[in-house]
Recover the amino acids of this structure.
């Protein structure tokens, strides 16, 4: 099972919007609306911020939003803030009843 | 408060065994799939295994099949990962997580180091 492909790094200035892509195949991202996004600050456990492509858990800022087109999912962070600087991982359920994560993206706030 | 607390990590020689445990509290443990996810030093997240509510279905990543066994004790609100024939590439921080398709609660992790 190959990891989903994410850009290694994305950066933006405070207040800007950025997008992180997550590319898989028709056996994972493209085959199911089961893409999640997790945020991980250094030395901390991951935190779920988006589930099922575009659902935000209670307590997660509405500056985070998700979408999907074909085999590629995206996470958009609008109104970028210093606290958004972290690593971000997508994940997708697969046709083999397994879960696969993305390669991870480091977000830097300039 | 929903909480997951992992334990059992440590230093083990290649070929050795280790058993990780995750203590769950604050939610109805028996009502959810549970999973293990690992993160090698400086690397990304890797799903390891998941187990159904009643323990009747288990899924594993190919690299641990035949070596790792996930199990649960619903009476004790406890999840376990028995790791045998450990390899250097199993060195990682191992997280316990609530769910299977959606991992909505994570523990802080326990570190496993495989080295001679």
């Amino acid at each position: 099972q190959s990891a989903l492909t994410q850009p290694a790094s994305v950066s933006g200035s405070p207040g800007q919007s950025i997008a992180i892509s997550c590319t898989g195949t028709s056996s994972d991202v493209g085959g199911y609306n089961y893409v999640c996004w997790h945020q991980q600050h250094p030395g901390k456990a991951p935190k779920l911020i988006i589930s099922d492509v575009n659902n935000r858990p209670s307590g997660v800022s509405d500056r985070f939003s998700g979408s999907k087109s074909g085999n590629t999912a995206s996470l958009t962070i609008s109104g970028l803030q210093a606290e958004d600087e972290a690593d971000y991982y997508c994940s997708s359920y697969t046709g083999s009843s397994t879960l696969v994560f993305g390669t991870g993206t480091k977000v830097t706030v300039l | 408060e929903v909480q997951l607390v992992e334990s059992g990590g440590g230093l083990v020689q290649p070929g050795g065994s280790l058993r990780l445990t995750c203590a769950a509290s604050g939610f109805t443990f028996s009502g959810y799939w549970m999973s293990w996810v690992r993160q090698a030093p400086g690397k990304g997240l890797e799903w390891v295994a998941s187990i159904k509510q009643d323990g009747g279905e288990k899924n594993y990543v190919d690299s641990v099949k035949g070596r790792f066994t996930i199990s649960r004790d619903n009476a004790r609100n406890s999840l376990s990962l028995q790791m045998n024939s450990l390899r250097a590439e199993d060195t990682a921080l191992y997280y316990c997580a609530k769910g299977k398709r959606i991992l909505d609660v994570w523990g802080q992790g326990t570190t496993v180091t495989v080295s001679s």
User: Anything to note?
Assistant: Chain B has a mean pLDDT of 98. Chain B touches chain A through 21 residues (CB under 8 Å).
